[in-house]
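User: Could you walk me through two proteins back to back? I'd like the raw sequence and the C-alpha cells for each, with a short line separating them so I can tell where one ends and the next begins.

Assistant: Of course. Protein one, sequence then structure:
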Amino acid sequence: MTTTTPETPQAPTRPKLSPRKRAQRFRLAQYALLVIVVAALALTVDWPAVRDSFFAPEDIKLTLTSGLGTALKNTIIYTAGAFVIGLVLGTVLALMRLSSVGPYRWFATAWIEFFRGLPALLVLLVFGTLSIAFPGLVIPFDPYGTVWVGLGIVASAYMAETIRAGIQAVPKGQVEAARSLGMTPGASTRKIVLPQALRIVIPPLTNELILLIKDSSLVFILGISTTGFELTKYGRDLGNQTAGLTPLTVAGLCYLVITLPLSVLVRRMEARQRKER
C-alpha cells in the first residue's frame, strides 16, 4: 500500500511589472527625491538674510528708478548691432569657406579659428584701445560702434560655421535645377541656397543671439560712461553704492526677461522643423 505525501502549498508568485510600470515607479521615485531635496534646502536657507542681500525692497525700488530702462535699452542696442554685423560677416565667411578658390578658404578658416579661440573680452579690449596704436582713429557711434564691431567679429566666427552647415544641408538637386534653368552660380546662391540655408539655421542663430545678450555684459572693460551702461555694469555700480547684491539681482532678472522668450521661440521653431521633416 503506497502512501502519498501531501504537497506543500507554494507561495503565490507576484506578477512581474511591465517595463512601463517600472518606468513610472522610477519617475515617481525621482520626483519624490526632488521634493525632499527642495524641501530640505528650503528649511535650511536663512530667508531673512537672502531677502536683505538679494531682494531688499528699498534697493529694488532704487534700481528700478535710477536708470534701469537706459541700461536695458543699451543691452538690446549692443546685442542687435553685434548680431547684424555677425550675421552679415558670418554669411560672407561661410561662402568663402565653401569656395573653390583656395585663398578664400584659407582666409575664412584662419578668421574663424582665430576669433573662436580668443575670449570676447580680449577682442573688446583690443578694439577699445585701437586709438593707442592708431592715433586719431575713431570708430563711429562710439561706444556702440566699438561694441558692435568687437562682439560682431567674435559672433561672425561662430555664425559662419552655423551658416556653412545650413548651406550644405540644402539639397544639391535644387542647385542643379537652378543651373539647368540658366542661373549663374551667384544668382542660384542668392535666390535658392541662402534663403533655404538661413531658414534651416534660424534656431541655432537664435541661440547665438542669446549668447550675444549675455556677452554684452563684457562691455564694462571699455570704461564707458553712465549713459552707456549695460545691465551688468549698471547693477554692479549701483550695488557698490548700496553695499548689497539687490541691484545685480534685478539686472540678472532683466536678462531672463529677454532670453526666456527667445528660448521658447527656439524650441517652437525646432519643433516646427521636426514636423516639416
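----
Protein two, same layout:
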Amino acid sequence: MIADVSKSDKIVVEKSTVPVKTAEAIEKILTHNSKGINFQILSNPEFLAEGTAIQDLFNPDRVLIGGRETPEGQKAIQALKDVYAHWVPAERIICTNLWSAELSKLAANAFLAQRISSVNAMSALCEATGADVSEVSHAIGKDTRIGPKFLNASVGFGGSCFQKDILNLVYICECNGLSEVANYWKQVVQVNEYQKNRFVNRVVSSMFNTVSGKKIAILGFAFKKDTGDTRETPAIGVCQGLLGDKAILSIYDPQVPQELIQRDLSMHKSELDKPPHLRPVNAVAIEQVTCVGDAYEAAKGAHGICILTEWDEFKTLDYKKIYNNMNKPAFVFDGRNVVDIEKLRQIGFIVYSIGKPLDAWLKDMPAVA
C-alpha cells in the first residue's frame, strides 16, 4: 500500500517488535513495487512499559535507530534522529545497523525475563533452605554490576512481550544452527512455567492435598499492577491449575473486566449457555468461577487467598476483617510478596510467601516439585 500511494522518496520506520530481518523483507517488497521511488527502511523499536509509557516516552533510557550503512541510509537515520533530538539528549540516541536494532529489542526483553526467572529459581532454593529471597535479592542487587531492578520474586512474569520475544530469539538461534544458545533461552520460559506450577502445587499440598470444592479468592488477575492487561498473565495458569482440581474461584481485580477474565479462562458465554455435556473440554463450569467487585467479597467464606498481582491496595486491606469471614484454617498464598507475613500470622493466617521461610504448617506438608 505504501508503494502504491507514494509519489516521492520515503523513509519507512519499523516500530513494532518484529523478527530479525523484517526490515529486509519490507525493503524487498517496496523495492519491487517502487515505480522509481526510493525507500529507506529504519528500525526504531519502542521500549515503552505498560503503566509508565508516557514517562518512558518523554524520558527514555535510550532511543535506538537502525538503518542501512549507506549514504542514503545514514541520511535517513539522521532525519529520524533530528525528530527525537527535540526532547532526547543526543547521547541517548543510539544509531546502529538494521539487524542490531531489531535484535537489541528482543535481547532487552530476554535479559529482563532472564532476571525474573533467575530470582524465581532462587526463590525455590530459598524455601528449601530457609533463606529469604528478599534478603538475597537485596544483597546481590547492591552489586553495581547487577543492580536492584527486576529482582523481585513472584509467581512468574507475564505480558505480551517477554515470552513472545524469547521464543522469537529461540527460533532465530535454531535457524542459525545455534541449538545450545536456543536451549539456554528456552530455559528462561521453562523456569517461568515451573514457578506457576510450583505455586499451584504449594496451594494444593498445603490445603490437605486437595482444593476440590473449596473456595479460593484470587486477588489480582492482570500481569502487573497499574494495567488491565492480562496477556500471558501468570494468573491464567494458576487459576486453570486450581480449576483442574475442581476449586471454586472468586476473582477480584480492580481493572480487569469480568468478560476478559472469562475469555482468558475459556469461559465464552456461547459455551456456557450449552448444557454441561456439550461444552468444550476447556470450558469451565460457570459455578466454578465468580468475578466480584472487591477483595472482601472475594475472600468471604473462602478457604484460601491467592495474591497474583501486586496491586497497592492489597498491602493495606483489613486482613483481620478478612480472616473473620473466612473458613478455618485460613490460608494466604502471596505470589507477589506484598503482605506483612508476621502480621498475618499473628492474626491467625497460615501464610505462604514466595521465597520466604516456611511456617511450621507448610513444613509439615509434603514437598512440592
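The chain has a mean pLDDT of 91.

Let me know if you want the two compared in more detail.
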